[in-house]
Design a protein that fits this description.
By secondary structure, this protein is mainly β. The protein is about 5% helix and about 45% strand. An eight-stranded mixed β-sheet has the order 17-18-16-26-25-28-32-34, with no helix packed on it. Strands 1, 2, 5, 9 and 10 form a five-stranded mixed β-sheet that branches. Strands 3, 4, 6, 7 and 8 form a five-stranded antiparallel β-sheet that branches.
């Protein structure tokens, strides 16, 4: 409900409770800037109870998207109330609420109920329009409580495993395909107990990680730690020749190789004449994900009984040599991965090692099983957000890190690229039984490269000296293929670039980071490969590639209405008519778009590449469902088909339809 302001606005409304000081401070910040106000209550979306101590932030936006100077934050009082006063009139104010125990929420759209989605605020989300002297009194925000997963990790004797790394995994749609993605990682305490907080509703798989990291005795690259989500090694590994008191965090196994002890479970003493190790375990003590039991969490639910008892298993040594590409492989990282997990980042390996100068390699302490031997200069970690969840693999550095958050898909990715083996890659299956595996031959492939230049089709192009990013995204979003990227190689009118590192996959050209610009076309020898991409599996280089970027496109706007024809809240999804474009669009889809209608029902989408599309309005809770091709197929009967060409400015009103996927 909105009400015109009188001279006595009623700041005393929140004059009691722990947040009163913050509320008054916010009023002083906005003093003499206007005569409008916003107030409301933050409450639990399930129980309806008020949430005290929630942080509420206010952002003002002018016409055209220019952000106002008004950026205020307050805390709710004991009854969940907040107020912002002395506000200038503005066409759009956005409210965001945060709390340590809840998913982020915003006005009129509680967030956090979707599994695995990155909580974010879209610039078209429901917002508040204020006139001078107007008081929006019921800008209420509902928040979903987050859950937790915990338990205890013990060894074969029932004794606590201290400092063991535990991580959660879940499935989510990435580039239209179901993919296993990692979540938070924590360490067990001195009781062997762990707890993973702030878990959204959904199904999760819990794993105790265990990586057997092998290094040659001659490695001399300085101290190494393993900061897996803030977890440090028990003692940093230092190469031979270091002071005696700095050594001891590695074990000399055969006089030529050492096993590095990290925050993963320390291998027990040999059993008979066989080395032993704790293999990675999925709850409840399964060796593979296919045998694991999922943990289902409802909103705000927690589990504290996800326990593990690890038992050591006999291990073997796996060794061989690089038979092709040796000259570029020295010190290259090799990883032994369970089949289907090759795209996962550090901490998900069974073992790691380095290629030695003569091309040989050795993995110590490998449990029996089927593996994929992965040789790649790039390792990535994918999930809702990359911050604080990555691990160094022992022996990997030095490396270049690149962090990207793809807002359209709600995906955060962090890549590490090493100079060792930067021009080669390889994969091969490895089967390990009771006996040592010797004589493996790994034939490395040369990675392909792309060279070309960027052309801006607008006279108001960026300054030639300004840096921008040309990226090649794997079409299937398999981050194990790396994301080769470069800044412009020539800071002049040529905008030349050169990118290496293409592996066995198809790559799409993407452009970052100038807002409003997009790739218009990619030409290779006059052939348009904008949508088909560049095939790295051919092993050929691509020269004289012409990338044209543009601000031009089509625009689509309108009003979302309910079944009675009244303006309604909802999400608007635009997707191509061609179902083949519902998958393999990388991490930055060009032809699939989703936005939220404002409180007035108005929505807008631009720029849009020309083509044939469906557009549909759905309830706000289905706004992220466009990433599932089955959802798009089910949405077709309720959608409106439109054809757009560059320069079009179409208006299309929509009725909200709830899409049911069968």
């Amino acid at each position: 409900m909105r009400r015109a302001l009188g001279t006595a606005l009623g700041v005393a409304l929140l004059a009691t409770g722990p947040a009163a000081g913050q509320q008054e401070a916010a009023g002083r910040q906005a003093a003499a800037t206007g005569t409008a106000a916003i107030s409301g209550v933050v409450s639990d979306a399930v129980t309806g109870r008020p949430i005290a101590g929630a942080g509420v932030s206010l952002f003002g936006v002018e016409p055209g998207g220019q952000e106002l100077a008004i950026r205020l934050s307050v805390l709710t009082d004991t009854r969940g109330r907040f107020v912002f006063v002395n506000l200038p009139s503005a066409p759009r104010y956005t409210l965001i609420a945060t709390h340590p125990s809840y998913a982020v929420g915003d006005y009129a759209r509680p967030a956090g109920a979707s599994t695995g989605a990155l909580i974010r605020v879209d610039d078209q989300d429901l917002s508040i329009t204020l006139a001078d002297g107007e008081w929006m009194r019921e800008a209420n925000i509902r928040m979903f409580r987050l859950g937790a997963i915990g338990g205890r990790v013990t060894d074969e004797r029932g004794e606590a495993l201290v400092g063991a790394a535990v991580r959660i995994f879940s499935h989510r749609m990435v580039a239209g395909r179901q993919q296993l993605v990692p979540g938070a990682v924590v360490a067990t305490d001195d009781r062997g107990v762990y707890r993973i907080p702030r878990v959204q509703p959904g199904r999760y798989f819990v794993a105790v990680l265990s990586v057997q990291a092998t290094v040659p005795v001659g490695v001399a690259d300085g101290p190494r730690t393993l900061p897996l989500g803030g977890l440090e090694t028990r003692r940093p590994y230092t190469p031979p020749g270091s002071p005696p008191d700095a050594r001891g965090a590695s074990v000399d196994v055969n006089g030529r190789h050492r096993l590095v002890l990290t925050n993963f479970a320390t291998p027990p003493p040999p059993g008979g004449d066989r080395q032993r190790a704790y293999a990675p375990a999925f709850y409840p003590n399964a060796r593979t994900l296919s045998e694991a039991q999922g943990i289902d969490l409802d909103v705000g639910a927690s589990r504290a009984d996800v326990d593990f008892q690890l038992a050591p298993v006999p291990t073997a040594t796996v060794s061989g040599r690089v038979t092709r590409g040796v000259e570029g492989a020295a010190n290259m990282l090799l990883r032994l991965m369970a089949p289907g997990s090759e795209h996962l980042g550090f901490g998900s390996e069974m073992g790691t090692t380095l290629v030695e100068a003569d091309g040989s390699f050795t993995f110590l302490n490998v449990p029996a099983g089927a593996y994929t031997l992965v040789a790649s200069p790039a390792v990535a970690d994918t999930g809702g957000s990359p911050a604080g969840r990555l691990a160094w693999s022992v022996g990997y550095g030095p490396a270049l890190g690149l962090s990207m958050v793809y807002e359209a898909t709600g995906t955060g990715v962090m890549w590490w690229r090493s100079e060792a083996g930067a021009t080669v890659w390889g994969r091969m299956p490895v089967s390990v039984g009771d006996a040592n595996v010797t004589g493996l031959e790994l034939a490395l492939q040369r990675s392909a490269s792309v060279r070309g230049r960027v052309v801006f089709d607008d006279s108001n192009q960026p300054d030639p000296a300004q840096r921008f990013l040309i990226m090649l995204e794997p079409a299937n979003a398999d981050t194990s293929l790396g994301v080769p990227n470069t800044h412009t190689a020539a800071y002049d009118e040529t905008h030349a670039f050169s990118i290496g590192g293409l592996q066995d996959g198809r790559y799409l050209v993407r452009f970052q980071p100038f807002r409003g610009w997009r790739v218009k076309s990619v030409l290779v020898n006059g052939i348009d490969v904008t949508d088909t991409g560049l095939d790295g599996s051919l092993g050929q280089d691509y020269d004289k590639v012409l990338v044209t970027v543009t601000k031009a496109g089509a625009a689509l706007s309108g009003v979302v209405r309910d079944r009675d024809g009244r303006p309604a809240a909802g999400a608007v999804i635009l997707f191509p008519v061609d179902p083949q474009r519902w998958v393999d669009y990388g991490l930055t889809p060009d032809r699939l778009k989703s936005t939220s209608a404002r409180s007035s029902g108005a929505y807008a989408l631009s720029p849009i590449s020309e083509g044939d599309y469906y557009v549909v309005a759905v309830p706000q809770g289905q706004g992220d469902a466009w990433q599932d091709p089955k959802f798009l197929a089910a949405a077709v009967p309720a959608a409106t088909r439109i054809s757009l060409t560059t320069g079009d400015a179409r208006s299309q009103d929509l009725r909200v339809s709830e899409v049911v996927v069968r």
